[in-house]
């Protein structure tokens, strides 16, 4: 407890008794009675041979229960095990290589490290670090090609994470890093540590081929990453049809069914090969295991097929479509729960282009805006 606040009252013996109060603050000053604590108590680390001088091997984690002026900053010292000065330890507790290690020369080092706090008198603690030198990487990384589909309203893409590169390496201790060619960084970024791909705002309609590579420090491997950007037209929203699927997650639909269903759907509803099928959004149905897919079909001449026409086509081809995935319903109007009696049900659809949903698998990623369906009774 760092302090107490006491309210003290003095009361006299008169009639009536009179009193006054005063507040007394008592601060408890800290004595440096706690040593620094290493977490964990001792460390093990590895470094591959032939890594350049200055390679980071380990980050020490030290805490102190004393107040801030009796704790950090800590002073680190390698007491034993570094007689040939193969290692350096910086003020932040990062252990680095000071030589290029060779597996044939030595396979293991044991260092005793001291941490000293900033109190008076100073308190010290010790830890042991076992560093193993392993053979350099012998296997190249392997990465899965990634295809990304982005659907956005006209010139209104806010940016964000659009997918993740999946890469592996048979060398157990290899650390993979991802890089993107510099001229593409004005539109995209790649997280160097985990391979997440980030698109910046304002992407134009079209196809982008990203020059991405993954490296284990010795081998560098290119990765095929293709990004397709499709901008929605406002007219599409007035001519949409929803197909509701049963028992499927968005990720499973994207990774397992979307390509096949898209092909089957094109054959079912397109009147001419030049017509275009636009998948606008996919979205889970709240409180269920169902999934809605919103789409529209654009004629070669530029207009859009009416929902009633598409629904007729879908109804005729439903059994064929269900060879790919189970369909729960085909919706033009979703007025369940409304009793309009002699009135008509009107549906309106709105798109929130700044609320993007990213459904990502190892091979394919689908990024689309969230949509809202509103219904009301009309005369």
UniProtKB/TrEMBL annotation:
Presence of keyword Transmembrane helix: yes
Domain of life of the organism encoding this protein: Eukaryota
Molecular-function annotations in GO: calcium ion binding
Gene Ontology terms: cellular component: cell-cell junction; plasma membrane
PROSITE patterns on file: CADHERIN_1, CADHERIN_2
Chief site of localization: membrane
Residue ranges constituting the Cadherin domain according to the UniProt record: 4-38, 39-143, 154-245
Protein known as: FAT3 protein
Underlying gene: Fat3
């Amino acid at each position: 407890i760092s302090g107490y606040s006491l309210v003290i009252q003095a009361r006299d013996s008169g009639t009536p008794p009179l009193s006054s109060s005063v507040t007394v603050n008592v601060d408890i000053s800290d004595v440096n009675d706690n040593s620094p604590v290493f977490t964990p108590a001792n460390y093990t680390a590895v470094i591959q041979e032939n890594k350049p001088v200055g390679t980071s091997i380990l980050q020490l984690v030290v805490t102190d229960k004393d107040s801030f002026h009796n704790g950090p900053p800590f002073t680190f010292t390698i007491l034993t095990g570094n007689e040939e000065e193969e290692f350096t330890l910086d003020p932040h507790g990062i252990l680095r290589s000071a030589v290029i290690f060779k597996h044939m020369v030595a396979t293991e080092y044991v260092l005793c490290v001291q941490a000293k706090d900033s109190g008076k008198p100073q308190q010290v603690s010790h830890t042991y670090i076992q560093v193993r030198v392993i053979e350099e990487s012998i296997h190249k990384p392997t990465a899965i090609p990634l295809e990304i589909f982005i659907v956005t309203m006209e010139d209104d893409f806010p940016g964000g994470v659009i997918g993740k590169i999946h890469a592996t390496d048979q060398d157990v201790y290899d650390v993979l890093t991802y890089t993107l060619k510099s001229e593409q960084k004005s539109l995209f970024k790649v997280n160097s540590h985990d391979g997440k791909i980030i698109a910046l705002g304002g992407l134009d309609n079209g196809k982008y081929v990203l020059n991405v590579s993954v490296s284990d420090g010795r081998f560098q491997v290119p990765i095929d990453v293709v990004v397709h950007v499709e901008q929605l037209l406002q007219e599409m929203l007035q001519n949409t049809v929803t197909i509701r699927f049963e028992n499927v997650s968005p990720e499973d639909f994207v990774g397992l069914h979307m390509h096949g269903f898209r092909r089957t759907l094109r054959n079912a509803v397109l009147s001419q090969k030049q017509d275009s099928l636009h998948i606008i959004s996919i979205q889970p149905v709240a409180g269920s295991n169902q999934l809605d897919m919103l789409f529209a079909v654009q004629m070669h001449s530029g207009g859009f097929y009416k929902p009633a026409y598409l629904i007729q086509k879908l109804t005729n081809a439903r059994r064929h479509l269900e060879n790919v995935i189970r369909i729960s319903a085909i919706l033009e109007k979703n007025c369940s729960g409304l009793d309009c009696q002699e009135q008509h049900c009107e549906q309106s659809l709105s798109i929130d282009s700044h609320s993007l949903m990213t459904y990502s698998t190892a091979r394919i990623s689908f990024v689309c805006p969230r949509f809202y369906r509103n219904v009301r009774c009309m005369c």
